[in-house]
Specification:
The complex is a heterotrimer of chains A (131), B (480) and C (441). Chain B has 17 helices and 12 strands. With 480 residues, chain B is α/β, with parallel strands linked by helices. The chains are: A alpha+beta (131), B alpha/beta (480), C alpha/beta (441).
Chain lengths: 131, 480, 441
């Protein structure tokens, strides 16, 4: 069973979560449901600082032993920080997808885009259907 | 087991070097110290230790000579010993690739005849023997397709590939700058004709089709498929990985294929050596002959020679002429079996696959229940649902019964896939004891799922930690 | 010969279990108009004795030369007896790719050991399980550099093997990259001034070979330095692998990739194949390089074992996004190379020295002939280029004596008229060389 989806954040249909801060930045990671599907994560290919992304553009790549998955940016923005701890301990995503396993931090271009994202309840509904 | 480095001891060597019969030069003077290396860290072992090391390693390895190896799509048939003897003839092994035409008439004749035999077996206009393996042949084939459209002045940027295809197909296409579009399979496991019609436009260079496909099923609509592709000016590429299913029964050239690559280590019995060498001849129809790699064997005044004089050629895909000694082995195989024997090999391969399919289909889910060709694909989903035992567990359990497992988790369109290819060289007794083992495992899965998940227990190591290997890669030994 | 064990009774019983009465029913899916009865124009079956006789006949039509003075990418070296015996173990040579690690520890460990030996020999940190040959290894390294840097230009020294450059051009054309050739200086080494002029921020990689096709040793470090200054990678090849017994490896001089032909390590000439593509690299490229990689790990009980690892790089997982499409490699040739290198150990240095001695002796003997001159001034390993009065006549004379002469460089370098590339390995005796000199006198 995956961990409950915290209600303090937004969700995307591609199984990412996003926490928006008042300074216009956001933290992005993948959901616990997603990490379960991916199984043991062995490597995270992180973007360089300054990379510009648009919704559904690849912002990072997550690898398990037998799969490669693109992590899509839920919003438009610029990468301002990456979770360097993932370089040596990619398993943080498996252990704590909603916390220590965050992947990148973005500066948002247009916070209006957040309206397109899902709430925790919407997201739960979506994965129920997926199952 | 210890590594060769761990048994190394300074001062030992297993190979000696003759004393020099010419004046010894001073390296510092002749070469200069800036070009010289300081250390040479290679193992130092005595010959007996070297022999025991590698012999013991070999005992931790499984080959066709040890037992049944039904690895689907890999056609692990018996590798006849005579092939090894002929390829080892000094006349074949000893020649330098730049020996002039006077020295190499036998080699050139063999290669010319091999090309002719392959052309006749597959109904193609011409073959190249240059590619070093099947995937290399695929790349060569797609390059020729690219050149064909370049020559025609057509900009086609897409290649269609069925969802059940080998990963090499999309990878080869992408390496030639093509965009890959996935083509859906229909409920019978064949090409979804409607989907093909909707995707096939004048932007599409080719459809890459494996026939029979990776489900081991022959494409019944092949004529229609070829007509749709050709109707839009596209080319039909054949992945010959499954050629063991139709030798002497049908010819890809007749079916409408414009280019096909083979894997001599599959269809033509050459040993795979634990990963290679292979050899990937590519056959083409008349439209693509001009684009074949150079050099090509030509015959002038009753003498064979190499010629690079083909201005539209894609060029070279490797140095020299191909994996020559592998070609000698495959040539030997074709001559041994002859036209009739090749056909019989296919018949027996298909008979064996259908026999296994019938014997096992009540125990394992069979997603496409129809006559199969040279291999059959089961799904382990029944076992997952009943006992939480996965295909990988069943595969590991087969190891304890003394078999190499089938190909698993491929094709991707079958969940928990088990792809079984028995080949023609296995006896009925072997097939029966293998099926008995599979049935015993199916029963064991219900009775003792934990036991199955623990397999194998008879091997020098149990299941290995692949996650650790990928998270903290250790690909070169370091003295600790 | 027929390798199918079924008796007619077996076939009948199997047909009955399947529920068919003729074998033709198995092929019902093949549309009728395409079915054939027989393969046309392929000869009939032969017994084993007859097969051997046919193949003996073909091998006999070759003219097995006593002596080869050409290397040029394929080298005649002595292969210790143990190599053939050990790679001939059926557990190795009749195995497929080690997909099932528990029953493939033998080949997996041998590859891990091979990777380690190659990394050490080339002065790099990692090496893959092998590529098809030296030429395709070089081309794949170039494609990888272009993909990683998103640059489309590749500079290759003209002193790199001509066939390797042709393969590079084919691969580059297919991928949409441009290849620029950089000329050699009078020394036979790459012309550093020209290289610097050609280098710009669109260059993905600079490719050199050391020893290069002329046998000449390149100065790798400055080439690496100027390449790196422009953000390009340095790919360094080599010709005869045994040279690494004495030569400073390119990896120790700043090369990012070391690629080359490993045939010299325990693999026969075999008229050009199968050979062994060596591919070694800096550790930082580990998750990007093509080909298979074997890694060490542990089993449930903590015992050391080996697996194919970092497979997400490969085509069966990454499909159209993979950097290479390679699947089958040259595992058995790599096994031969591993055994060869382990057999020689430190004696590889002595072997390399012997090759230099022989090369120098041959060179000096030929230089005694009237009108023969050295073409390049930089140091060489066991190959060298000499200009002679009439290259064709020289090779014709040698051919009459059953000797393969020098490689005529004019076929690839129009300006190198009457220049022959010679090679002397440990297989050539002083007597042979004296005889060659006598023939040409």
């Amino acid at each position: 069973m995956s961990k409950p989806n915290p209600t303090d954040r937004y969700y995307s249909r591609d199984h990412e979560w996003l926490i928006y801060y008042s300074d216009g930045t956001a933290l992005i990671g993948i959901t616990d449901y997603a990490q379960e599907m991916l199984t043991d994560i062995v490597f995270v290919d992180l973007p360089e600082i300054g990379r510009k992304v648009v919704p559904h553009a690849t912002v990072a790549v997550v690898e398990s032993v037998k799969s490669v998955s693109d992590i899509f940016s839920p919003v438009t923005g610029e990468v301002i920080e990456v979770n360097q701890a993932l370089e040596d301990t990619p398993e943080l995503i498996n252990q704590d997808a909603f916390g220590e396993g965050w992947i990148v931090s973005l500066r948002l271009s247009d916070p209006e885009e957040l309206k397109m994202l899902l709430t925790a309840a919407d997201y739960e509904e979506m994965i129920k259907e997926e199952k | 087991m210890e590594l060769i480095f761990e048994i190394s001891k300074p001062g030992r060597a297993a190979a000696d070097i003759p004393a020099s019969d010419v004046p010894t030069v001073n390296l510092e003077n002749i070469i200069g110290s800036q070009y010289l290396r300081e250390e040479l860290e290679l193992p130092e072992v005595a010959e007996i230790d070297l022999v025991r090391h590698y012999t013991n390693l070999s005992r931790r390895n499984f080959g066709v000579d040890l037992g049944f190896y039904p690895l689907g799509s890999c056609t692990m048939k018996y590798n006849p010993k005579i092939n090894e003897n002929t390829a080892a003839l000094p006349g074949f092994t000893g020649l330098h690739p730049y020996a002039g035409a006077e020295f190499i008439q036998g080699n050139l004749q063999l290669m010319a005849e091999m090309q002719k035999y392959l052309s006749n077996i597959f109904g193609m206009a011409e073959f190249t023997l240059q590619p070093a393996a099947g995937a290399h042949g695929e790349l060569t084939g797609v390059m020729m397709i690219k050149k064909y459209f370049e020559k025609k002045g057509q900009k086609r940027h897409m290649i269609l590939i069925p969802d059940a295809a080998h990963g090499t197909n999309p990878a080869s296409s992408a390496l030639c700058g093509f965009e890959v579009r996935e083509l859906k399979s229909n409920s019978e496991g064949g090409v979804d004709i409607e989907h093909l019609e909707s995707l096939m436009t004048e932007d599409v260079a080719a459809l890459m089709l494996t026939n029979p496909n990776t489900l081991g099923l022959f494409e019944r609509n092949i004529e229609k498929v070829a007509a749709i592709v050709h109707g839009k000016g596209g080319l039909l590429y054949g992945d010959g990985a499954n050629a063991n299913a139709f030798l002497g029964k049908a010819r890809p050239g007749d079916l409408g294929f414009d280019v096909i690559q083979l894997n001599l280590h599959k269809t033509f019995s050459t040993p795979h050596g634990g990963g290679g060498p292979g050899s990937g001849p590519v056959g083409v129809g008349q439209a693509l002959v001009d684009f074949l790699p150079v050099p090509r064997v030509v015959k002038r005044d009753n003498q064979y020679a190499w010629s690079e004089d083909f201005p539209d050629s894609i060029g070279r895909v490797r140095a020299f002429y191909g994996n020559f000694s592998v070609i000698v082995k495959a040539y030997t195989y074709i001559r041994s079996l002859g036209a009739e024997g090749l056909k019989r090999a296919t018949e027996m391969a298909v008979l064996n696959a259908n026999y296994i399919k019938e014997r096992l289909k009540t125990y394992f889910d069979l997603p496409y229940d129809r006559i199969c060709m040279h291999e059959c694909v089961f799904s382990g989903k029944k076992q997952v649902a009943e006992s939480g035992v996965h295909t990988t567990d069943i595969a590991k359990c087969l190891i304890d019964y003394g078999y190499h497992p089938p190909t698993i988790y491929f094709p991707l369109i079958v969940p928990e896939a088990m792809m079984i290819e028995p080949t023609e060289t296995e006896s009925r007794e072997t097939l029966d004891t293998f099926c008995d083992a599979m049935i015993a495992i199916a029963k064991e899965v219900r009775k003792n799922p934990e036991g199955v998940k623990n397999a194998p227990v008879t091997t020098p190591v149990s299941r290995l930690d692949e996650v650790l290997a990928a998270r903290r890669p250790d690909v070169c030994w370091k003295e600790s | 010969m027929d390798y199918c064990p079924h008796t007619s009774d077996d076939i009948a019983q199997m047909q009955s279990l399947i529920g068919i009465s003729t074998l033709d029913e198995l092929f019902a899916d093949i549309p009728e108009q395409f079915r054939i009865k027989q393969i046309p124009d392929v000869p009939g079956a032969l017994s084993e004795m007859e097969t051997l006789s046919v193949l003996n006949g073909l091998a006999g039509k070759n003219n097995l030369t006593r002596l080869t003075l050409t290397g040029a990418g394929a080298y005649h070296h002595y292969i210790p007896a143990v190599v053939g015996h050990l790679i001939g173990r059926a557990e190795f040579y009749t195995a497929y790719t080690p997909y099932q690690a528990e029953i493939s520890q033998g080949i997996l460990q041998s590859i891990y050991e091979y990777q380690t030996m190659i990394a050490r020999l080339t002065g790099t940190e990692i090496a893959n399980a092998s590529m098809y040959d030296g030429a395709s290894a070089m081309a794949e390294a170039a494609v990888l550099c272009a993909k990683m840097s998103d640059r489309k230009k590749i500079i290759v020294a003209r002193s790199v093997h001509p066939e390797y450059r042709k393969v590079l051009k084919t691969y580059s054309w297919a991928n949409g990259y441009v290849v620029v050739e950089s000329d050699y200086a009078p020394s036979g080494q790459i012309d550093m001034n020209e290289l610097q002029r050609e280098l710009d921020d669109q260059v993905a990689a600079v490719i050199i070979q050391s020893p290069n096709f002329f046998g000449v040793l390149e100065d790798v470090a400055p080439a690496a330095e100027v390449a790196h200054q422009k953000g390009a990678m340095l790919i360094a090849g080599f010709t005869d692998g045994t040279s690494l017994g004495v030569l400073k490896p390119a990896g120790a001089s700043g090369a990012d990739f070391v690629v080359g032909e490993g045939q010299s390590f325990g693999n026969p000439l075999n008229y050009g194949g199968p050979y062994l593509g060596i591919f070694a690299a800096r550790e930082k490229f580990m998750r990007r390089i093509p080909g298979r990689l074997v890694g060490a790990t542990v089993d449930k009980k903590g015992r050391r074992g080996f697996v194919l690892t970092l497979q997400t790089r490969e085509q069966h997982i990454r499909r159209e996004k993979a950097t290479s499409n390679i699947c089958s490699n040259e595992a058995l040739c790599a096994l031969a190379a591993g055994i060869y290198l382990a057999a020689l150990g430190k004696n590889l240095k002595r072997l390399a020295e012997l090759n230099i001695d022989k090369g120098q002796y041959l060179k000096n003997k030929l230089l005694e002939l009237s009108g023969w001159k050295e073409v390049f001034s930089a140091p060489v390993y066991n190959e060298f280029v000499l200009r002679c009065p009439d290259a064709r006549k020289v090779n014709e004379k040698l051919k009459q004596a059953g000797i393969i002469g020098g490689y005529d460089l004019q076929r690839d370098y129009p300006e190198l008229e009457n220049a022959l590339l010679f090679c002397a390995t440990e297989m050539i005796s002083r007597e042979d060389i004296d005889k060659v000199a006598a023939i040409l006198r």
